[in-house]
Amino acid sequence: MHRKTSAIHKIMRDILYCVLLCIFLVLGIDAITSQSRYGRLRTSVLESEGYRRQRMDTRMLDYICEAAAPGRELGLYWLENKFCQEAFRYPYTEETFQKLERIWSKKQGWEEYCMSCEAIWDDLQYFPVPEPSNQTDMEVTFEDSWMFERNYGGKRGHEGTDIMASTNERGVYPIVSMTDGTVLHKGWLEQGGYRLGITAPGGAYFYYAHLDSYADLEEGDTVKAGDLLGFMGDTGYSDVEGTTGNFPVHLHVGIYLVLEDKEISVNPYYPLRYLESRKIKCAY
């Protein structure tokens, strides 16, 4: 009897040990997973390809199109789905993002990360090419060409989005500012041709390239969202100012963050998708 009781006690101890071990393992794995998740806010996150690509699914795009200031919610969305490497597991509601913000806002690095998301998104007001009010064949198209290969001046990735004109005629399509801001750069660049660079209130830099001509603007001038910047063209790919004809008429849009004197390009494709329904109507 004594031996039988001892054997039972040993089995019970072994079972208890296994149960405790499983509990500790689960807690440990959960802690590691949690630490890894919050580690997405590391200092280099803004330079990562996942962040710079700015991807989202259709449901998130539809959600932010109803938002006045989508930057913060997009930032939370990307942290939760590991920059679109995982599924977003929650409902696309204001309540969801309020709950997520209460968690992420306590983590180190949140403020800088959130401000960068807001800088890209919250100043956006208008699509850069107005909708013609008196033409039916003056359309524009664009695709997600982020990091597509380009070869002029050496092999490189395409850091922008090209808005292509259906009518290949320079000086016809007006270009307006997507944001309020200040004209930081104006003039000729070998790759960009006649270009304008505008710094928006949140600090992001919006770049408009290959213009045919400019509106009455100079460096240092302030602009309002929707103000005329110039007209779409095909200038560039030459160190000779005024060169045209090296590619079809289009507008190259670039968006950049400047962090501690470091320039970081981000994909303009989804900001342009967000603005597609926000076009100014004008005659051209």
Terminal CA distance reads 101 Å
Largest sheet: 10 strands, antiparallel
* Percentage of residues assigned to helices: 25-40%
Low-confidence stretches: 20-35
Q: Can you describe this structure?
A:
This protein is an alpha+beta fold and 284 residues long. The protein is 31% helix and 23% strand. It has helices spanning 2-38, 49-53, 58-64, 71-80, 94-104, 110-121, 269-275, and strands at 131-132, 140-141, 149-150, 156-157, 161-165, 174-176, 181-189, 193-199, 205-214, 222-223, 228-232, 250-259, 262-266, 281-282. The strands form 3 sheets. Strands 2, 5, 6, 7, 8, 9, 10, 11, 12 and 13 form a 10-stranded antiparallel beta sheet that branches. A hairpin with a 3-residue loop joins strand 7 (181-189) and strand 8. Helix 4 (71-80) crosses helix 5 and helix 4 packs across helix 6. The longest helix has 37 residues, at 2-38. The protein is elongated. The model is unreliable at 20-35 (pLDDT under 50).
Features:
alpha+beta, ten-stranded antiparallel sheet, 7 helices, 284 residues, 23% strand, two-stranded parallel ribbon
Q: TL;DR of this structure?
A:
This protein is of the alpha+beta class and 284 residues long.
Outline the secondary-structure elements:
Layout: H1 2-38, H2 49-53, H3 58-64, H4 71-80, H5 94-104, H6 110-121, E1 131-132, E2 140-141, E3 149-150, E4 156-157, E5 161-165, E6 174-176, E7 181-189, E8 193-199, E9 205-214, E10 222-223, E11 228-232, E12 250-259, E13 262-266, H7 269-275, E14 281-282
Parallel strand pairs: 1-14
Antiparallel strand pairs: 2-5, 3-4, 5-12, 6-11, 7-8, 7-10, 8-9, 9-11, 9-12, 12-13
Helix pairs in contact: 4-5, 4-6
